[in-house]
């Protein structure tokens, strides 16, 4: 209970030897059948924000509980929560747990406890955390390899898409499933497999049926953007009516910068290298919605950047759209984004250039001796 309060309390507990004490309590509970659940909850609270505490004996304990007590939903939930806490921003813990077989145990938990929303939600989060590359202490992680293992060795895509069918009205579970599917879409064939397994139809239906649920819409957009990395899937999304739903969702949640950013990013991906998709997006009001988002969120660099990239993709291969977009006021909005946000400099310049606007292009280096111009 103390550790749930704040990080300072967890740090003090760790300094005073709470981790080995809690771990010993977990071991004792495993051997004597006393309250293992309480001990695991204490361990989870201690690991929150402090994954360095978890050592090899602790990892083995978590894996042992997941293997030996897999029929107990409450224990599985508490243990997976420990795994998740220990994996955030800690690459070594992730790699050690994967070597110990945690991926099959997490996927197995989704199957075995497919009727429990809390377990499915936590197991999805656990799988997703294994695909993070967020530890600044290591030069590179195994995020891609872990995602590949989840899909190819453990059938993760099929399991997740099947699991969604049990929770048609639970937005929290569906949000986690979409977020995890997006993280697993790291290869061209994985994106196509999601479509073949019915994942695209699932996402489009979610967007249509749950369009008022802002957080869910954001995750669906992110997943659509991820699978649209495959050019064939781009066409499948457009043919399924995905572009109209994305524009509708962005318009519905125009006040949310996160939804606007993800919507523009999804449309941007659908437009990339696809002139026919650009036409569908234009006819569906995608450019106008993106510019409205820019007006609504001038201080949000993410919205401004993604909208600029979308405009650029819409006109880079189809210059006929340039005049229409300029008449919507694009030039001033893009110029304002370029001036206000350093991260928008290159994409804004590219958008203005492809729209046919006057852009000052500077040579940062001319081959002459001296430093780069700034």
TrEMBL record:
InterPro entries with a match to the protein in the record: ARM-like, ARM-type_fold, Armadillo
Record-linked SMART domains: ARM (SM00185)
Keywords (A to Z) from UniProt: Repeat
ARM repeats: 198-242
Protein name: Armadillo repeat containing 6
Keyword Endoplasmic reticulum: no
Originating organism: Podarcis muralis (Wall lizard)
GO biological process, one term: hematopoietic progenitor cell differentiation
């Amino acid at each position: 209970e103390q550790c749930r309060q704040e990080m300072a309390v967890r740090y003090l507990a760790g300094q005073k030897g709470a981790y080995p004490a809690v771990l010993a309590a977990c071991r004792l509970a495993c051997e004597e059948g006393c309250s293992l659940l309480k001990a695991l909850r204490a361990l989870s609270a201690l690991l929150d924000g402090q994954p360095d505490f978890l050592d090899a004996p602790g990892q083995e304990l978590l894996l042992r509980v997941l293997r030996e007590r897999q029929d107990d939903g409450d224990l599985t939930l508490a243990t997976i929560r420990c795994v998740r806490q220990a994996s955030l921003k800690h690459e070594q813990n992730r790699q050690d747990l994967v070597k110990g077989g945690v991926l099959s145990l997490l996927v197995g938990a989704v199957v075995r406890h497919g009727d429990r929303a809390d377990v499915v939600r936590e197991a999805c989060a656990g799988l997703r955390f294994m695909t993070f590359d967020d530890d600044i202490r290591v030069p590179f992680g195994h995020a891609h390899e872990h995602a590949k293992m989840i899909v190819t060795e453990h059938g993760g895509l099929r399991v997740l898409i099947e699991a969604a069918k049990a929770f048609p009205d639970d937005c929290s579970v569906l949000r986690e499933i979409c977020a995890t599917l997006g993280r697993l879409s790291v290869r061209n064939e994985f994106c196509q497999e999601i479509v073949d397994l019915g994942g695209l139809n699932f996402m489009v239906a979610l967007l249509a049926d749950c369009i008022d649920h802002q957080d869910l819409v954001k995750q669906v957009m992110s997943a659509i953007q991820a699978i649209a990395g495959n050019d064939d899937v781009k066409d499948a999304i457009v043919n399924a009516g995905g572009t109209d739903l994305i524009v509708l969702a962005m318009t519905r949640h125009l006040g949310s910068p996160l939804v606007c950013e993800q919507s523009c990013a999804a449309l941007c991906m659908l437009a990339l290298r696809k002139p026919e998709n650009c036409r569908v997006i234009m006819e569906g009001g995608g450019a106008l919605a993106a510019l409205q988002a820019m007006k609504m969120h001038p201080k949000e660099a993410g919205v401004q950047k993604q909208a600029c990239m979308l405009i650029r993709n819409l006109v880079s291969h189809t210059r006929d759209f340039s005049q229409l977009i300029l008449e919507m006021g694009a030039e001033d909005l893009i110029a304002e984004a370029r001036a206000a946000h350093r991260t928008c400099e290159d994409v804004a310049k590219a958008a203005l250039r492809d729209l046919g606007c006057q852009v000052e292009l500077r040579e940062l280096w001319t081959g002459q001796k001296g430093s780069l111009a700034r």
